[in-house]
Amino acid sequence: MSGRLLEGKIVVVTGAASGIGRAAAIAFAAEGAKVMASDVKKEACEETVATIRGAGGEAQSIACNVAKEDEVAALVAKTIESYGRLDCAFNNAGVSNSGFTMDMEVFRRTIDINLMGVAHCLKYELAQMLKQGGGVIVNTASIAGLTGSGTLDYCASKHGIVGMTRAAALHFASKGIRVNAVCPGVIETPMTAPLAADPAIKARLEAMTPMGRMGKAEEIADAVIWLCSSKASYVSGQAIAVDGAFMCK
């Protein structure tokens, strides 16, 4: 199929087993990319790969806990071993909590996965992209990385991702590497499903958004695809809210 935005590109997606990561992995493949899908949930990640292959795309899976630097190093190494380069990376793996807490074990786990996980990914992805002369990285932040809306640990981790995104974009702009972040609003994913299952809570979630509905994982994936494509060739260092106008309030 001609005219696809990412024909022949090599892409890594973390958190590809479900939600936004799964939607993005499928979208990358639909646009012609070869996808290295990773997640701590190996079997679910393999289901994502099977879906891609069933549609005629190319993908592989690897188990990866982004909180562990050695596993991230292995993820990037396998990508290079399999495909020879890394054109795009979507650092999406993350966790959230349902309530405000000052439990330091919970706080540390959130930071280790959300913030340190992205830092680990950036370390190895940027090193490879420097070797090959360029690339594109998109990190998943959140509207909680732009406001104080959310739990203490989650907001801290997502604000940190926005800061790292801007710093990396500035530092590597002259090296042919673009780095951006997407900041999803209230999105229908397995992470939010327990809340949305309650009609009253779902109604409150929808009322939070000016568009009056929750977003879909595919809508975040569309933004990620655009950011990774040549259509966004002059866009770097941005934290783009995909939130149904939530941030306009």
How would you portray this structure in words?
This protein has a single domain (10-241), classed as Rossmann fold. Helix content is 47%, strand content 17%. It has eight helices and nine strands. The chain has a seven-stranded parallel β-sheet, with helices on both faces. The chain has a two-stranded parallel ribbon with strand order 7-8. 45% of the residues are buried. The model has no long low-confidence stretch (mean pLDDT 95).
What are the key terms here?
seven-stranded parallel β-sheet, 8 helices, Rossmann fold, alpha/beta, globular, single chain, two-stranded parallel sheet, 249 residues, 9 strands
Radius of gyration: 17 Å
Helical content stands at 40-55%
Main pleated-sheet profile: 7 strands, parallel
Tally of separate domains: 1
Element-by-element helix/strand order: EHEHEHEHEHEEHHEHE
Q: CATH H level: which superfamily? A: NAD(P)-binding Rossmann-like Domain
Concise structural overview:
The chain has eight helices and nine strands. It is an alpha/beta fold and 249 residues long.
Helix-strand layout with pairing:
Elements: E1 10-14, H1 19-30, E2 34-39, H2 42-54, E3 58-63, H3 69-83, E4 88-91, H4 104-132, E5 135-140, H5 152-172, E6 177-184, E7 187-188, H6 193-196, H7 199-208, E8 215-216, H8 217-228, E9 239-242
Parallel strand pairs: 1-2, 1-4, 2-3, 4-5, 5-6, 6-9, 7-8
Helix pairs in contact: 1-2, 1-8, 3-4, 4-5
